[in-house]
Amino acid sequence: MNVRKILELILYCLVTFLVCFFLVDWLLPSASPVMTKTSGTVKKQAFTYVAIGDSLTQGVGDTTNQGGFVPLLAQSLTNETDFEVKAINYGESGNTSAQILSRMQEKKEIGKDLKQARLMTLTVGGNDLRKAVLEDTSNLDLDRFDKPAKRYVKNLKQIIDLARKDNPDLPIYVVGIYNPLYLNFPDLTDLQTVVDQWNQRTEQTLAAYKDVYFVPVNDLLYKGIDGKSGVTEWEQGKETVTNDALYDEDSFHPNNTGYEIMKEAVLERIHATKKNWSER
C-alpha cells in the first residue's frame, strides 16, 4: 500500500468518526450535571419581632447598650430558623402597665409595627409592684396588694387586646418578674411571696388567651447564676452578697449574663410553641 492510499484511509476513518460523534450528540439529550454550584445562599424570609415593655425590654444594665435580651433573641432566631428576624424595641425604663398601655394607644408607629409582627414579647408588672411596695415598705400584707394587682391585670388585658387589634393571632410571650432583693434581704420572705403571687396572677390571666405565653424568670435570676446564691465577699470584716446575674451599679436590673439567661428562657418557650408562629 502506497503513501497516498494510507492517507486516504486515515482521512476516511477520521471523517467517519466525526460524523458518528456529532450524530450521537445530536440524537441523545444532554444530561444535567450531578453537582452544580449555587449562585449564592437562599435568602431568608423577613420576620418582624416587636418587643414592648419597661426597662427589661429597653435593656438597662446591658453594658453593650444593644438592648438587653431583645437583640440576643432576634439573633438566635435568625441563626436557628429560616427567618431573618428584625427586632423593633419599644422598651422604656420605669414604665408601669398603665404607661405601656398609654404609649401603645398614643404612638401610631407601635400599632403599625404590631400589625406586621409575627411575634411579640412583653415585660410588664415589675414597676407596678415596685410602686405598690414603696407606698408602705413596712407593710407587706398580701391583702394590701389586691387592689394594685387588679389594676395591673386590667391593664395587662388591654395591652394584649390592643396588640392584637389588627393582628388577632399574634403570638405574645410575657416575661414574668423576679425578686432582685432576695440575696440582700433573705429574711423578707413576704416579699418573695408577693412576687410569686404577682407572677401567678399574670400566668392565670394569660391562660385565658390562645397563643399568649408566660415565661417565668424569677427562679433563674433571684439567687444568681445557676442558683448559687450569688457571690459572697468580705470587706473590713463585713459580709456582702452580690447577685452575679444582676447589674453591679444598681443590683436591680440584669447584667449581660442575666439578659442572656432571660433570652434563653424566652427562646425555649418560643421553640416549644414554634408551630404557632412559624407557619403564619
TrEMBL record:
Assigned keywords, A-Z: Membrane, Transmembrane, Transmembrane helix
InterPro entries, alphabetized: Ester_Hydrolysis_Enzymes, SGNH_hydro, SGNH_hydro_sf
TM helices/strands, residue ranges: 9-28
Domain SGNH hydrolase-type esterase: from-to ranges: 51-261
CDD domains: SGNH_hydrolase_YpmR_like
Gene Ontology MF terms in the entry: phosphatidylcholine lysophospholipase activity
Gene3D superfamilies given in the database record: SGNH hydrolase
Protein name in the entry: GDSL family lipase
Species this protein is from: Streptococcus rubneri
Organism phylogeny: Bacteria, Bacillati, Bacillota, Bacilli, Lactobacillales
